Batch of 3 targets.
Target 1
Amino acid sequence: MKNSTLALAVAAALSAGTAQAQISGDVVKIGVLTDMSGVYAALSGQGSVIAAQMAIEDFGGKVLGKPIQLVSADHQNKADIGSATAREWIDQQGVDMITDLVTSSVGIAVQRLASAKGVITMNTSAGSTALTNAECTELGIHYAYDTYALAVGTANPIIQSGGKKWFFITADYTFGHSLESNAADVVKANGGQVVGGVRHPFPNNDFSSYLLQAQGSGADVIGLANAGQDFTNAVKQAGEFGIGRGKQQLVGLLVFSSDVKSLGLKAAEGLQFTDSWYWDMNDETRAFAQRFFERAKAMPTSPQAAVYSSVTQYLKAVEAAGTDNGKAVRAKLGEMVMNDVYHKNAKLRPDGRVMHDMYLMKVKSPQESKSEWDLLKIVDTIPAEKAFLPLEKSQCPLVKKQ
Amino acid sequence: MAISANAILTQAMLGLNNGAFYAMLSLGLAVIFGLLNIVNFAHGAFYMLGAFVALIGLTQLGPWLGMPDLQINFWWALLIAPLVVGLLGILIERTLLRRLYGLDHLYGLLLTFGVALVLQGFFTNFYNTAGTPYPGKPEILDGVVNLGFMYFPKYRLFALVVSLLVCFATWYLIERTKLGAILRAGTEKPKLVEAFGVNVPLLITLTYGFGVALAAFAGVLAAPIYAVSPLMGADLIIVVFAVVVIGGMGSIMGAIVTGLALGMIEGVTKVVYPPAASTVVFLIMALVLLVRPAGLFGKE
C-alpha cells in the first residue's frame, strides 16, 4: 500500500516536472490576513479583500490552468492570532501567498513563520523597516511603504521650513517605535532636535493627556507616530484643546486617504504627508478606483491598491515560473519589472523591499475639493532611491551574504 | 523633562474629568450593591448601551424607520438613553436577578458578568471595536474655556459639572430624604418595612433600574469625548470596581469622593511617572485593603 502510493507520487512528480506545471493541491490559494474591525480596518480590512478579489478576476480566475482561490481572516492586530491563522492556512489549507498583513507586530511574526514554511508574504500595509532589515526573510516581501520612507518624505520638508524642535506621540509597539526612531534620525541629521516624547497604548481612545504634555514641551512640531484611528482621534482631540493651531504644528507621520476622509477636509486642511499612491493620479488609477468604489462604497487606499498589485504580480510570477513553489516564484519576482495601476517600473530588492516612487501629498481645502472623495493633491514625487533605505545600509543578513 | 506646576494642574484637571465618570459609574454600583446586595458586573455594558442608544438615535434610527430626517439629538439622548436602558435593567432584574436574591453574592456576579458578555458580543458583531465617533456634540459646547492655567474644552467642563451635580443629587436622595430612608430600611429589614405598607420588591426593582440608568447617562455624556465602542464599558469597569472597593462597598459618598480622587491621582501620575498611570489605582486598592479591609468609607 505504502509502496504503491510512493510510486504514484514519484510518477506524478516526474510527469508534472516534465509535462505540466507544478501547482500544489491543484489550486493557487491567496490569503488576505488583515484587521477587519479594529483601528486599521478602514485603511485595509474588507477593502483589501475586495482588491484581492478584483485582481484574481482581472487575471481571469485561473493561472497555469488551475483555479485561483481567495481566503481571508481577521487577525485583530494580535501577533498570536495572526500566526495561528497563518499556520492553519499554510499547514491545513495549502495557502501559497499571504498579503495585506497590516500591523507590524503581526507582519513580522507571520513573515518569519511563512518563510520558514516556504510561503511568500507580500506585506502591503504594515510599516516597520524591520521587515526588510533585522527581521528580513528569504520569502518576505515588503510591498508598499515603510517608516523610513515616511520619515524622509514627511519630516524633511517640515524641518527645512523651520520646524526644528520635535515632540513625538508614539503608538507603543513595533511600528510606532520604528516610525519614531526613523523620524528622529531624520530630524537630527538635518540639525533639528527631539525635545521629548510619550508613548501611548495601542490602540487608544483618549489622547488628551499626551497632547497636553506635547503642548507644554515647547516643541515646534508634534509628530504623531501612530496610524489609522489612533491618528484621527489624536488630531480631533488636539482640535478640541486648540493644539496645533498656533505656532506649534501637528504632523501625522503616517496618514492614509481614509484618515483624511474620516477627519473631514475642514479639520485636515493643509496636512502634508507621504504615501505611495492616491486614487486620483491618472486615468488608469481613476478607472480602477471607480470599479473598486462600486463594490466597497469607498475609494481605495494605497494599501488596498497595493494588495491588488501584489496579487497581480504574484500571479504573473507564478505563470512565468510555471509553479507555485515559493522559492521559484520569489526568484521570478526578483527578476521582473512590475507595471500596474499601483506602480510603474517597480523592482524587488534581495532584502524584500519593493522599490517605487513615493509622493508628498497635501490635503485640499474645502474650497479646492470638487467632490466627496476629492481630498488630496500631489506636491512632490520622491524617487525610489531617495525614498527608501539604500541597500548598502540594510541590516538584512541576506544582503550581507551577497 | 522638568515637571512644572502647570503640567500637574492640567493633568489633574483632565484626571478630574475622568474621575467624574468613575464617580458616576461607581455610584451606580454602590447604590445597587448597598440596596440590593448584587455585585453588578453588567454595569460597564449598560454604560456602553447608553452611548450606543445616543449614537443609534442620532445616526441610524431615522433611516431604519424610513424617516431620514428623524434624529434624536444629544439633549434628548441624555433623557431617553437612561430611560431605555433603565427599562432594560428593570426587565433583567424582574426576570433574572430576582431569582438569585436568596443565594450567595457569587451567583449575581456570574449572572451579570454573563449579561455583560452577551451585550458586548452582540454589539461587537455590528460595530467597530475601535470605536465610532459620536457626531452629535451640541454646537453651543464647541470651543474652549480659559481656566487660567489651561484651555479646557467646553464640553468636557460641561460633562464634569453635570456629573458632579448628578452624583451629589443621588447622594442627597438616598442619604437625606424620606424616600432614601425607606429604601435603606427596606433592604435592612424588608419584612418590617412591608408591614408598614411599603411595596419593597417594587422599590428594589426601581433602585436597580435607577442604578442602570445612571450608567447609561454616563455613557451618553462620554460619547462625544471618547469614541462609542462595544468595549468602552469593559475597559472602564475594572477601574470602577477598584474605586468601589477603595471607597468601601456600598458607601455612596465613598464612591463619589474616591472616584474623583483616583481620577486626579491617575492624571498626576501621568506627569510624574507615566508608566505607572494605569496601575496606580490598583496599587492604592491593595494598600487600602491591607490597612482598611472595609474600604476608606466602609462601615464595620
Target 2
Amino acid sequence: MSWAAHELESYFLQKHVKVKVSYIAVLLGCLLPDLFTKLPVYGWQIGSFTLKAKVPYKYHRGWPGAGFTHSLSFGLIVGLIVLAIWKNRAWFVGILIGQAAHVFTDICDSVGTMVFWPATTQHYTIGMWAYASQAGRYGDAAAYYSSLGGIWDLLWLFLAIIGWRVFTRDFFFGRIVPDDPAWGWLRRKFSLSDRAMVALYRAFFVYGGCRIFSWTLWSRFRNPERATQTVDYTWGGPSFVDKVVIPGEGWGTFVQNTLVGMAGSAIICWVMWQLVGKRLWARAT
Amino acid sequence: MPTTVAAVSIPEDEVHRARRIEIGVYLFTAAALIVLGIFLTSKILNWIVGPAFVVAMVTIVTPRVLRILGVRDPDEGSAERAAPGTERAG
C-alpha cells in the first residue's frame, strides 16, 4: 500500500482539477479506502479483544473481504450517499476524484486493486514494490521505506511542493473556502481564526511530508532489524520481505476480465446514475 | 484574489514579517514532528495525532513567538469576523 502518497495527492489534485471541488472531500476520498480497513490489516488490540484479519491482503484488497473499498464503484456509492445527505456537488466530485486517486495509486504494489469490482475481481498491479502489510505496521514501514515505495512518496511530495501556490493564503481563501461551505461552518462552530483554518488545510501536507522522513529514518536507524532490512530499490523489492503476489492467469484472461470489467462498471455506473445520481445531482447545489 | 485583512490596521511590512515568522513555526513544527516521529512512530504518525499536532503547534506557538518578537498578530481577532471567501461559498 502507499503511505504518505494518499495525503499528498489531495493537494496535487486540488491544483489540477478545474471544476468546483471540495478539498476536504478530496482528502477524505483519498483516505476513504483505508479508513476502516487499516486497523484490522495491522491488528488492533484493546485488553483481551484483538481485531486482526486472518489473511491481511485478502481482507484489505480481495474479495471476499473489504477489497471492494479499493474499487471505482465504491467511490461512486459513497459519493452518491454524500450527495444525498449534504446535497453538495463539490463534495460529490471531491469524494469521487480522491477515492479514484487512491485506487490507482495502490496498483503500484504487488497486490494491486480490484479497480472494476463488482464486474470483475481482477487485480490490477504493476508490482513496483512489495505488499507487506502481513508483516505488521513496523514490518510494512521498513519494507515500504526501504523500497521504491519510499521514492513514490517522495515523488508526490515533490509534485506537491512544485505546486506550492496551493499552500498560499490567497489560494486557500480565494478558491478552497469559496468552493466549500464546510469551511464557513468550521469557522463558526469552532471559532477558528484565519491562521487555524489555513493550518488545518496545510496540516496533511506537513504531516504527510514529515512521515516520509520519520519512517525512513526509523527504518535506517531505529528499526531493530535494520541489519537485515536494508535498502533495496529494485523493481518489486525489497527482497527481505515475504511479498504477497496475486498469481497471474495469463494475458488472455486478463484482457477478457478487463473488457468485462470496463463494460460492467460502465453499465453499473450508468444504471446508478439514471436511478439515483441524476435526481440527487439536480437537487444539489 | 481576496487576501486576509487584519482586524486592526497593521502596516504591510509588519504583516509580511508575521507571515515569515509563521513559516518559521511551520518549519520548526515539521522538524519536531520528524524527530518525534522517529521515536514515537505510530503514536504520533497517524491520521489524527499527526495533523492535530501541526494545527496545535502553529496556532499556539505562532502568537507567542510574535508577542516575544514584538510583532503585531495580523490574525488576532479574525475568528470573530467572517472568513474571507465564505461570502461566496455554496
Target 3
Amino acid sequence: MNFKNVPTVCPYCGCGCGIILQVLDGEIINIVPSKSSPVNEGKLCIKGWNAHQFVYSPKRVTKPLMRKNDDFTETSWDEALDFAVSELSRIKDQYGPDSIAVITSAKCTNEENYLVQKFARAAIGTNNVDHCARL
Amino acid sequence: MSKKIREYIAELLKEKKIDGFLGLKKESGQIIPYLFSEISELEELDTGDKDGKVIRYPLNKMLIQLSRRYPDKTFGVFVRGCDERGLKELFKWNQINPEFVVPVGVACSEELAKACECKKPYPDQCIDGEKVSGISNKRVEDIDSMEISKRLRYWLNEFSKCIKCYGCRNICPMCFCNECSLEKIDLIETGKIPPESPIFHLTRAVHMAGRCIDCGLCEETCPANIPLRTLYKKVTDIIDEHFSYRPGYDEGKSPLNILGARPDEG
C-alpha cells in the first residue's frame, strides 16, 4: 500500500499552475489542484485537471518518426539526427540562416528553452525563435 | 496544530486500529494530502491553516479510491463537519464501508464557519477545536429575495462565465459515479464554451440534490467564481422542504438514493 501525493507543475501552458499528482502503488490515478500554490490557488482549467492522462496513453510517440514515402515510419535516433543535421546544413548553406526558424514550447523547461534559442542564434545564426505559448 | 490530535492518531497507529491516516502535511511550503503510516511522520501533520486561509482537499474522495483498492485495510481520516457529513452519506451510498474507517474530527473556527455559512461547523466527535454554533444561509435568502426575472438573469450571467473545466465535479467528494451525465453527448453538446446554459449547471445541481453535504470545495475550485455553493445550498433546502431529508444530518436515506441495500441491511 503506497499512496503518494506529488506536488508538481502542470506541463501544459506557461502559467505554471501547481498540481498534485495522486499516485497509488506507482500509478497516477488522479490530479488535484494545489490549494496552496500562489499561481492557481486551487483552481485549474480542463487541461490541468487531465494533465496526467497522456502518461499512460498508448498513442504516445516513443520512437523518432521519419516521413518516408509520405508515411511516418519509426526509425533510430541516429538516423533521425543524421537526417536533421544534413538537411538543416543543406538549407542553411543554400538559402542562408534566416531561412530556418525554431519553435520552442511552454512545455519545455526554462533550461531547454534557453538551449533552443542558443542553438538558433549561435549554431544556426538566426533570430527566428518563436514558441507555442499563444494559448 | 495541537499535540492532542497528533497523540490521538499516534495511539490509533500504535494500537493498530488503523493501517494509515489520511490527512494533510506541509511539504516544501505547500500543504498537500498525505497518507501517514508511521508515528514518526506525524510531526508533519497539518490541519490546513495557512496565512489566514484554511486549505482543504477532498480527502473522502481519496478515501474511496484507497478503500476500493484495499477493502480490508482500515483508514483514519481527517474530518471537519462537512467531511463527516460526507462520510455518513458515502456510507449510505455504499461507497465506503464504515467498519474500515476511523474519522478524526476537528471543529472549524468561527471565521471559517461564517465564511461557509455552515449549519454545523463541527463533527459529532471532536478531537480538537472549539465547537462554534451553526450559521444560517444568508446567501440563499439574498438570492431568493430577488425579483424572479432578475434572479434568472443573475444565474444565466453566472453560468455564462463557465469554462467547462469540470472542476466542480472533479473535486466533489460526493461525485463518485462511474459514468457522468455531464459527459453524455446527447445531453451536453461538446466543443462549446460556455457549455449549454443552463442545462450543464442544472444537470449537476439536480444530481447534487439529496447528496451535497455543503463542503464548498466546488465553489473554491471554480476558476470563474460561479457561486455554485449557493446553488447547491438551495437545492438541498428544496429536498429538505419536500422530503424532510438533509444529507449528512438526518437518519435514513435520501429519497433519491436507490443504490444497493439500506445501510442497516448491510
